[in-house]
Amino acid sequence: MQNTVSGEILLWDISKEDDPLLASTEIAVFNHREPITGLHWITHYGKHNKINFVSCSLDGKILLWSYEDDTLKLDHGFVILAKQLPRNFLIKARKDNAEIGSENESILCNKIDVKK
């Protein structure tokens, strides 16, 4: 998998020498419109014979994708904006990655703990 700064996701089969690009997302209203900050494979989501993954972006969107019939399909999507989070949420960085912040009212973080 690869992402672009425009929010596009590309799925490659690097075992193929000719035309290794399997599929890509389109620029669409519901897809990412900002740079993608994370792409992760998902196991045990939906049908087990499909390729599934989740993406998140600076636009605050968390999108669940599947690859089927040579197409990347958007299955579900969520938007989380920093102003929607309760005030008692704390943002803590992991020791190995301290990138924390907010951009375009979206949230960038590694771990969220609820203050008791």
Automatic annotation (TrEMBL):
Keyword field? Cytoplasm, Repeat, WD repeat
Q: Which residues cross the membrane?
A: none
Any one GO MF term held by the record is:
dynein light chain binding
Q: Say which domain of life the source belongs to.
A: Eukaryota
- One BP annotation, GO: intraciliary transport
- GO CC list: ciliary plasm; cytoplasmic dynein complex
For this protein, the record's InterPro entries field holds:
Dynein_IC, WD40/YVTN_repeat-like_dom_sf, WD40_repeat_dom_sf
Q: Which named protein is this?
A: Uncharacterized protein
Q: Does the keyword Repeat apply?
A: yes
UniProt source species: Larinioides sclopetarius
